[in-house]
Design goal:
This protein is globular. The model has no long low-confidence stretch (mean pLDDT about 95). With about 250 residues, the chain is α/β, with parallel strands linked by helices. The relative contact order is 0.16. It contains eight helices and eight strands, in the order H-H-H-E-H-E-H-E-E-H-E-E-H-H-E-E. Bound molecules: zinc ion (ZN). Zinc ion binds next to helix 7.
Length: about 250
């Protein structure tokens, strides 16, 4: 797939990066990504991936825009209140680049569903869906980019247990729903922390697709917005893991 003059102009700043270049932009144009969750993490992640020219983006979410979302979900405006999130986000992405193929799936991901992307982005807010997506990624040999944000902290990781033997999966990191797991709307979160985290998820997807740098495979980046620090921890496979310890 060669790049048109219009694409060369649009993606010039990525082409100038030696780790991406023209071949990397072509890989981005040929890539397919499913973003599960169109809220505080999925929004900025989707905006950056569309701007990067990801050829096919599939959005999953059954939620509608609530006014309390607008403090952090900057992909939406006040006029979007009450509208379906995936429809509104898909419209935003088409505005960014009309040449992309954007699919909106107005359902919550659940066991039995089959997102189509070669890379799956977990931007969801509940553990049953996260565990089900991890199982799907492992079984169907997809790469999983996972992110979460709460309070002043965010975390991002890449899980490749279905692709690389011996790589840890999401459930090696989070074996079960934390006992005090609270619904997203019951805890506070600093708006920009969700933007940093969602953007970091987009960055990891771009690295995986283009081969640039070192993806956070088997590692978790922990971002502390309150102290302005971040650190990375390395994961190992949980020998008791019900998903990847076969
Ligand atoms: Zn595992």
């Amino acid at each position: 797939m060669s790049l048109t003059p219009r694409e060369l102009e649009r993606h010039k700043r990525h082409i100038l990066l030696k780790e991406i270049g023209g071949p990397g932009v072509q890989r981005l144009r040929a890539a397919s990504v499913s973003i599960l969750g169109a809220g505080a993490l999925g929004g900025p992640c989707a905006l950056y991936l569309a701007a990067a020219g990801i050829g096919r983006i599939e959005l999953w979410d059954d939620d509608r825009v609530d006014r309390s979302n607008l403090q952090r979900q900057i992909q939406f405006t006040d006029a979007d209140t009450g509208a379906g999130k995936v429809e509104r986000l898909a419209a935003r992405l088409r505005e960014i680049d009309p040449d992309l193929t954007i699919t909106a799936v107005a359902r919550r991901f659940a066991p039995g569903e089959a997102p189509s992307g070669a890379i799956l982005i977990d931007a969801m807010d509940n553990f049953p869906s996260r565990f089900a997506l991890n199982q799907f990624a492992h079984t169907h040999a997809r790469l999983l980019v996972s992110g979460a944000a709460s309070g002043w902290t965010g975390q991002v990781g890449v899980f490749a247990s279905g692709v690389h033997h011996g790589a840890p999966c999401y459930q090696c990191w989070v074996p079960e729903s934390p006992p005090a797991a609270e619904a997203c709307d019951e805890v506070g979160v600093a708006g920009p922390v969700t933007g940093i985290t969602g953007s970091a998820m987009a960055l990891e997807a771009i690295k995986l697709i283009t081969g640039a740098g070192t993806p956070l495979m088997g590692r978790i980046q922990l971002i502390d917005g309150l102290s302005g620090t971040s650190r990375t921890v390395r994961l190992t496979c949980d020998p008791e893991c019900p998903v990847c310890n076969l």
